[in-house]
Amino acid sequence: MNEIGWDDAIQSYYFKYNPLNFVDGKFKDNTFSTPWTVYAKVPRIKRENRNGYWETIAVNPNDKFLELFSRWGFDNIHAGDIKDQIFQMLVEGRLNGTKEFDGKNRNFWQSFIYLFNLTLQVRNSTTTQYKKDTNGNVIETIDGVDFLASPVKPFFCTDGGKYTEGFVNLAGLEAKFIGKIEDKERFIAEFNGDANGAYNIARKGILLLERVAKSEKPDLFISKFDWDKFTQKTASH
Description:
The protein is an alpha+beta fold. 32% of the residues lie in helices and 22% in strands. The protein has one domain (3-191).
């Protein structure tokens, strides 16, 4: 990663990197080079098995990173550059061993990657959950929830009820809606991971049609590189 730091204005840990730096050899030719800055201050849900029942838990990776750095004794958890502190503590042997974190005994790197992956978890969804009350009766605990929340500015986030309070921001998407006001309001309220999936399936269809129009025997396989290149090109339109 190019930078791991704390953004005082946003009050969030951030990570700057380019996917190209994480691959070697021939894979570099199939990796789209784009610098990213992702922020940990995003709403997320995770599922945990508790006493035989899966429960949905709200979590903010930003708070968890704060807990992680505190648990491992970082000198300044709100310093601008956390990356230098990580390297210094590594050299000093202060990151050796394991510590209990988030209910599991993990080393620092396992906990760090776990939280980073959680930060990148753009789609957050779950079906209806159940558990037993104190009398052993099975009860419903939550209706299905499905929301998108990007860790990249301008922090696009759809409505996920109590899980996204204070975060909902469609980043200008609502301004592009064409149709009746009532349809627009329903769209804003109901846009979720399935809607986003349908939109991108349609975009892949456009890419395939372009190939079919150019060749009698088109290559219909869309690689990650092809998809990244296409979406980067169309993002500006």
